[in-house]
Input
Amino acid sequence: MPINETYNEQAIVKAIATALDDFYNNLITKVDGLNIKLVMKRKNPYLFRAKAMNGAAQIVDAILAAFVSSSEETIFGNVFFEPIATAAAQGQKALAEGVDIMVERDNTIYAIAVKSGTSVFNADSRKKQEQNFMAASKLAQQAKKRFVPLVGYGYGKKKVSNRGLPKFYMELAGKNFWNELTNDDEFYIKIIRFMNKLPEKYVEAFDASYQKAANRLLKEFTQEFCLEDGSIDWEKLVEFNSGV
Output
């Protein structure tokens, strides 16, 4: 039986608007704070040389694109799905560690940990999640209510494995997760519809931030790691990255 029988569509749209606002504000802040030394400390200069990337602009374009790709995935996972799931489940922000949403229905307490994609866990983090659910279950025991823990993945598919001992918590992904929260088999598709034209309002601000970062990083790279004739000073770059 789904956690909810229905949901408030206006609350969902509001949650999506808030999530998009948080996503772009965080991403733009990250891009605005970028500097070449911070980036080059984490990059492999030998790889750039091995690929014969001899243009400063070529290197800057590559590192900026990679930075944004990595950052946007992390930020999106952190800010997008949880508020939508909270609104969909008509739940409350959980106080228990490792649990995002608590929903109380009749004699049952649902504890929901919201994740982005299905590849977030390693052995240690999975064990920690189990411990967090165990700790949260004590609250339900004190209230003399049934406890249902759930890990929900905002997108993707999750196969149920029959190998080994069964877990005491459910794992649902994509369509199945959103259906559990809303009793709407098409809710996972409706999230896209509910976005409507909301993302377009952020494009101009993000593009401006990106272009300023590209110009800034190119200027810094040229000043720090290029010779007088404009060629890259590979030895200086390697020394900065890997020297003592």
User: Anything to note?
Assistant: The chain has one domain: 9-242. The mean pLDDT is 92. Residues 174 and 218 are 40 Å apart (CA to CA).
